């Protein structure tokens, strides 16, 4: 490779060095070098990722491997390569001057679009050194054309680097990832080496097919070419798109930016921008006046966000979108609710008053609340649904939630291509590049079961994050670089040019509608105040803020511009302002009459019809007919109907056979019990979705919900999709290797339709902690903060089986610690004890020991008259444990989920003679049972399994204790004492027993790590805990 580099370096540049003389023009004048005619090109042999080889167009990053291949082949045998390569390598190794080695072969092809025969423009080729002799074009003519092509490409690729993007004029992006003084910006960043002579400026060049600057013209003077390129790429819009691999998409963008007159707007459009800008500005100043010391994270400095969002929404609805799901941070949120969603101002203003809530929940601060609005879009005259998803302070965490909710809405509307429902995500500059969840969310954007068919991202790039400026908050040139991983075009735009902002918003909406892929709008703006309204920015950014103080408001600048253009009169401007001011005042007066706030006004996902007419404490039965079990069991045990054509793996055949044997014996193992739960819900028309890493097969190779044809690629069979002709849909999907992103996504999915069982499974339970933010901020507290319910199921493989510190514990204790039931309160005993407890708690935590109970608890998620998240510890070795099977008898009609499974063996024959009552949960039951058998203590020790740990089954535990009046009570667990259930159950046992009896502990001692890495140590610990438990 080094050799090739040397050759490449010798070849630079392909284009001629057209020499000097400074032109008088303002535009592109930096292309003209004064004095020094020998501006030879500096070529570094080190390439930076964003600094393509300086010899473009053909020696670029992606072609260098090819060139190397050619070169090696040529070295071996010069005849093995095309004659043009032969001549090229010959010349370059012979030391040809830069640009002289390549002899382009004559083209025999007919001229295409924008192509004119070189001969036809010969007469235009004025200036020195460009004569056409006898119809023959000399090498210089061709080289000059190549140079012009390269210039055009350079503008397309790098014009953004010198575009005027910053309304403060203090920063610009440079190639090395730092921000520097704009004055120091080296213009060579766009066109690095093509030194032009003023005399060349009026020569006419034919335009290549990769540009649209000509409009209908096929050739233009160099002066005009440069002027148009500067207009398209170096004014207030800087577009990054040349990294996109699709030529069609690149051309599409070129056309949207380059076509002459493309940005022109009529008076109505301009007036609309002004009106929207007036409202955005008026809203913030109204709040500032009325509540000067309240935090609101105002939008001042980026008021253009409101017209921008509205433009995206208008254009998208015009193109067929009916519902938009939005996620956004704190900045400008109230303004968005008021002026984009048109949430009644009264509801917003009451949030500033310290009023009681009229409904349940603990609420959230005003700049985190969500909303849902259905309204007529006045511009397009179409109905539109807008939802802003409630979010925590944790920046960007809402992104995957929005995507999941959007995906679900698309799914239930049958909108397979995302034509009707779309997501719109807003970001702050510091958070967008700093938070890893942004990357994880981008990686869901093109996955078949996770795509939302394109998201429009808008970055409020105020060039600061709290007190930190970009030099210290990122290592990438732009805050948006993360979007490049998915080939999203990125439009940087100067916030103080409203028309340019509108133009990129229009392009973004059209891009999404055309290609159904993500797109980013980076609004480069500033933050007029501190981080919030009571923060002093001069402490840390004195110069920036001095500049900001002297920067006029965009509304004033734009109004002035439109007055100058004769679009509006000063009176109209004043009138629009005053009208909005009046609207705010009236709402303010009304808001002061309110005595209560209603959390329900801020709900982002209403489930209309779900709760109505339902007894809030009535659970539907979860047992099913035996026929149903048999039918599902058989389907799960059978190859596809066209089995002869569908070759399945021998191992799968064995699994299916053993499943069939279980069905015949009327029992299920864990996998079959799960399939029965899913299949029976599908039968009832419920959508079941199971998502997570490798869930299709199952981490432990037990599930096999997708069978793969062994000789035909991608031919698969999903038995659960073929249970009943009119069943609900079944989705099982392997996810990307992300927890934060995917759990967030599934949570969002679960918010859309209460009649869906949405499950996320961790590869191993402990990986849930990389999604901790979703668990803490959304799942455990979402209902309390945002009156929003979710029935999401988290399946977390959990058990200490000698596999080391990781892969053992799903950190059960953390979930229990976040459970909201009171350890000191034994609720009144009644028929409705269990369901009332479920109703009142924030989530359910369980560790089932039998497939039947697993079956019931999954079905209960849908049978409940409300929705609660279910955190389920799931087994590993139990998946194949011969005793961990359940009879159909425990799943048929009149059976139900057992919160506690009492002792059923010999100890029950003489309860008062029982010496010890052990309580436990999950897999350790089988270890305890085995130890009890070995020690022949069946009559002395009773074992009760607490299957639902939280909410704690006080009533059933009390009953069990009462059954064995003379027994010592003990909680046995395999986890360490500071982990597992102990710290949760201990105070609750005390409450249950009211101090009348003690409960001892048998388990591992406290530990920092969840499990030992030594198998030997593991077994020693297990023996010790079993001995403890069996001591009578
Ligand atoms: C995950 C996370 N970490 C830290 C914070 C604290 N915080 C709140 S706002 C903020 C700065 C955000 O900057 P930026 O994303 O540029 O948005 P801006 O406030 O400038 O609009 C920080 C660090 C947070 N809210 N979330
Ligand atoms: Mg910022």
TrEMBL record:
Residues 668-881 form the Transketolase-like pyrimidine-binding domain. It is found in: Mitochondrion. InterPro entries: 2-oxogl_dehyd_N, 2oxoglutarate_DH_E1, DH_E1, KGD_C_sf, ODO-1/KGD_C, THDP-binding, Transketolase-like_Pyr-bd. SUPFAM superfamilies: Thiamin diphosphate-binding fold (THDP-binding). Signal peptide: none annotated. Its EC number is 1.2.4.2. Keywords: Glycolysis, Magnesium, Metal-binding, Mitochondrion, Oxidoreductase, Thiamine pyrophosphate, Transit peptide. One of its GO terms (biological process) is glycolytic process. Its cofactor is thiamine diphosphate; Mg(2+). Pfam families: 2-oxogl_dehyd_N, E1_dh, OxoGdeHyase_C, Transket_pyr. It is an enzyme of class 1 (oxidoreductase). It comes from the Eukaryota. One of its GO terms (molecular function) is metal ion binding. GO terms for cellular component: mitochondrion; oxoglutarate dehydrogenase complex. Coiled coil: none annotated. The 2-oxoglutarate dehydrogenase complex catalyzes the overall conversion of 2-oxoglutarate to succinyl-CoA and CO(2). It contains multiple copies of three enzymatic components: 2-oxoglutarate dehydrogenase (E1), dihydrolipoamide succinyltransferase (E2) and lipoamide dehydrogenase (E3). PANTHER family: 2-OXOADIPATE DEHYDROGENASE COMPLEX COMPONENT E1, 2-OXOGLUTARATE DEHYDROGENASE. Belongs to the alpha-ketoglutarate dehydrogenase family. This is 2-oxoglutarate dehydrogenase, mitochondrial. It comes from Cryptotermes secundus.
């Amino acid at each position: 490779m080094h050799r090739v580099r040397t050759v490449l370096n010798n070849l630079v540049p392909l284009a001629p060095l057209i020499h000097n003389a400074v032109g008088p023009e303002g535009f592109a004048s930096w292309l003209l070098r004064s004095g020094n005619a020998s501006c030879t090109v500096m070529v570094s042999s080190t390439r930076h990722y964003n600094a393509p080889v300086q010899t473009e167009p053909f020696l670029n990053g992606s072609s260098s491997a090819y060139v190397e291949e050619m070169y090696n082949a040529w070295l071996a045998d010069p005849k093995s390569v095309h004659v043009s390569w032969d001549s090229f390598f010959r010349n370059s190794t012979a030391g040809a001057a830069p640009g002289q080695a390549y002899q382009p072969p004559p083209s025999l092809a007919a001229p295409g679009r924008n192509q004119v025969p070189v001969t036809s423009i010969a007469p235009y080729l004025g200036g020195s050194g460009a004569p056409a002799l006898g119809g023959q074009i000399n090498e210089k003519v061709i080289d000059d054309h190549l140079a012009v092509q390269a210039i055009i490409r350079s503008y397309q690729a790098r014009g953004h680097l010198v575009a005027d993007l910053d309304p403060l004029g203090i920063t610009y992006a440079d190639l090395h990832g730092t921000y520097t003084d704009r004055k120091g910006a080296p213009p060579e960043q766009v066109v690095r080496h093509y030194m032009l002579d003023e005399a060349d400026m009026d020569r006419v060049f034919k335009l290549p097919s990769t540009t649209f600057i000509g409009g209908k013209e096929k050739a233009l003077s160099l002066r005009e070419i440069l002027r148009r390129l500067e207009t398209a790429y170096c004014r207030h819009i800087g577009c990054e798109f040349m990294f996109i691999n699709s030529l069609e998409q690149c051309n599409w963008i070129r056309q949207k930016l380059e076509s002459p007159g493309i940005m022109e707007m009529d008076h109505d459009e301009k007036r609309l921008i002004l009106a929207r800008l007036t409202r955005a500005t008026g809203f913030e100043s109204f709040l500032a006046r009325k509540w000067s010391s309240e935090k609101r994270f105002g939008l001042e400095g980026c008021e253009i966000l409101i017209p921008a969002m509205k433009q995206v929404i208008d254009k998208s609805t015009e193109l067929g979108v009916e519902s938009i799901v939005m996620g956004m941070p704190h900045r400008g949120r109230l303004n968005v609710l008021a002026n984009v969603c048109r949430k009644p101002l009264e509801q917003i203003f009451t949030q500033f008053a310290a009023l009681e809530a009229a409904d349940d929940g603990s609420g959230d601060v005003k700049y985190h609340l969500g909303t849902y609005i259905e309204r007529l879009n006045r511009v397009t005259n179409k109905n539109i649904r807008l939802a802003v998803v409630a979010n925590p302070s944790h920046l960007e965490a809402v992104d995957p939630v929005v995507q999941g909710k959007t995906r679900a809405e698309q799914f239930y509307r049958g909108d397979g291509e995302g034509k009707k429902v779309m997501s719109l995500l807003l970001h702050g500059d510091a958070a967008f590049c700093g938070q890893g969840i942004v990357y994880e969310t981008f990686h869901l954007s093109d996955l078949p079961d996770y795509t939302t068919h394109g998201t429009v991202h808008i970055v409020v790039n105020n060039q600061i994050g709290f007190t930190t400026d970009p030099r210290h908050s990122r290592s990438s040139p732009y805050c948006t670089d993360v979007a490049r991983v998915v080939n999203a075009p990125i439009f940087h735009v100067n916030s103080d040019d409203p028309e340019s902002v509108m133009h990129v918003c229009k392009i973004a909406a059209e891009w999404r509608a055309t290609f159904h892929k993500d797109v980013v709008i980076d609004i480069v703006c500033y933050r007029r105040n501190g981080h919030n309204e009571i923060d002093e920015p001069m402490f840390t950014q004195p110069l920036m803020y001095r500049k900001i103080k002297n920067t006029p408001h965009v509304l004033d600048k734009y109004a002035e511009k439109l007055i100058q253009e004769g679009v509006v009169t000063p009176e109209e401007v004043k009138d629009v302002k005053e009208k909005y001011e009046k609207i705010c005042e009236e709402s303010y007066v009304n808001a002061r009459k309110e005595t209560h706030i209603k959390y329900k006004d801020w709900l982002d996902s209403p489930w209309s019809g779900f709760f109505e007419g339902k007894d809030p404490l009535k659970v539907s039965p979860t047992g099913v007919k035996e026929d149903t079990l048999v039918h599902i069991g058989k389907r799960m045990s059978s190859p596809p109907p066209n089995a002869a054509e569908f070759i399945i793996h021998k191992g799968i055949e064995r699994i299916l056979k053993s499943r069939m044997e279980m069905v015949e014996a009327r029992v299920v193992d864990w996998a079959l019990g799960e399939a029965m739960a899913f299949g029976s819900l599908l039968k009832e028309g419920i959508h079941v979705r199971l998502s997570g890493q490798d869930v299709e097969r199952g981490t432990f190779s037990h599930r096999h919900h997708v069978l793969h044809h062994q000789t035909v690629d991608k031919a698969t069979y999903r038995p659960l999709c073929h249970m009943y002709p009119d069943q609900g849909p079944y989705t099982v999907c392997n996810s990307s290797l992300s927890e934060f992103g995917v759990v967030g996504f599934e949570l969002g999915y679960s918010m859309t339709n209460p009649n869906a069982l949405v499950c996320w499974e961790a590869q191993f339970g402990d990986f849930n902690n990389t999604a901790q933010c979703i668990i803490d901020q959304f799942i455990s507290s979402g209902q309390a903060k945002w009156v929003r319910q979710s029935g999401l199921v988290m399946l977390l493989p959990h058990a200490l089986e000698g596999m080391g510190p990781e892969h053992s514990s799903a950190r059960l204790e953390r979930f229990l610690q976040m459970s909201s039931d009171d350890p000191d309160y034994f609720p009144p005993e009644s028929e409705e004890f269990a369901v009332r407890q479920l109703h009142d708690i924030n989530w359910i935590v369980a560790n089932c020991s039998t497939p039947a109970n697993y079956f019931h608890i999954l079905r209960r998620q849908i049978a409940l008259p409300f929705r609660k998240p279910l955190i389920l510890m799931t087994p590993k070795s139990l998946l194949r444990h011969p005793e961990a099977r359940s009879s159909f008898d425990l799943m048929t009609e009149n059976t139900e989920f057992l919160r506690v499974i009492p002792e059923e063996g010999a100890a029950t024959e003489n309860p008062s003679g029982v010496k010890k009552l052990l309580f436990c949960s999950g897999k350790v039951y089988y270890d305890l049972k085995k130890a009890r058998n070995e020690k022949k203590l069946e009559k002395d020790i009773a074992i009760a399994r607490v299957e639902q740990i939280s909410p704690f089954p006080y009533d059933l535990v009390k009953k069990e204790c009462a059954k064995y009046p003379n027994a010592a009570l003990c909680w046995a667990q395999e986890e360490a004492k500071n982990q597992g259930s102990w710290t949760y159950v201990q105070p609750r046992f005390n409450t249950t027993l009211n101090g009348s009896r003690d409960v001892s502990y048998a388990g591992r001692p406290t530990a920092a790590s969840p499990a030992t890495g030594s198998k030997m140590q593991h077994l020693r610990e297990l023996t010790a805990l079993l001995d403890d438990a069996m001591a009578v």
